[in-house]
């Protein structure tokens, strides 16, 4: 069995949209499947290559495998949608549907949002997790 911490969603810790997204996922992930870590943090240094850590416009999801292999690294729209699917909540249904859209289209939409996030959302929004959620926020 893989360490459950292999299900880590890495995000830009200085991005207001990213932090709001983490708050959204924390509130809905009642099965406590996902862990979260900023790309700028020490957990990212342990799990991600230097090249991936410079990709601040991309969400990165380490998705555990069931066959004992190392976690699979997913980027951009695949990362977001697979994290929603893995939470096993009602959000997995729209995520399954969205995965029917070609990856190039999904990632183009994702990239447009990433390129405009600083204009659309304030930076440096503080995460305010409850004590139970705090254990799922990695440094």
Automatic annotation (TrEMBL):
Superkingdom, taxonomy of origin: Bacteria
Protein name (Swiss-Prot/TrEMBL): DCC1-like thiol-disulfide oxidoreductase family protein
């Amino acid at each position: 069995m893989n360490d459950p911490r292999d299900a880590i969603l890495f995000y830009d810790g200085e991005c207001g949209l990213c932090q709001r997204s983490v708050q959204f996922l924390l509130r809905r992930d009642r099965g406590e499947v996902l862990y979260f870590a900023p790309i700028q943090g020490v957990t990212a240094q342990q799990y991600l290559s230097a090249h991936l850590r410079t990709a601040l416009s991309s969400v990165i999801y380490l998705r555990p495998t069931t066959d004992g292999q190392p976690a699979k690294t997913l980027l951009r729209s695949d990362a977001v949608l697979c994290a929603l699917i893995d939470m096993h909540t009602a959000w997995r249904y729209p995520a399954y549907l969205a995965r029917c859209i070609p990856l190039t289209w999904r990632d183009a939409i994702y990239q447009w949002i990433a390129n405009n996030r600083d204009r659309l959302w304030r930076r440096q929004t503080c995460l305010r997790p409850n004590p139970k959620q705090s254990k799922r926020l990695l440094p």
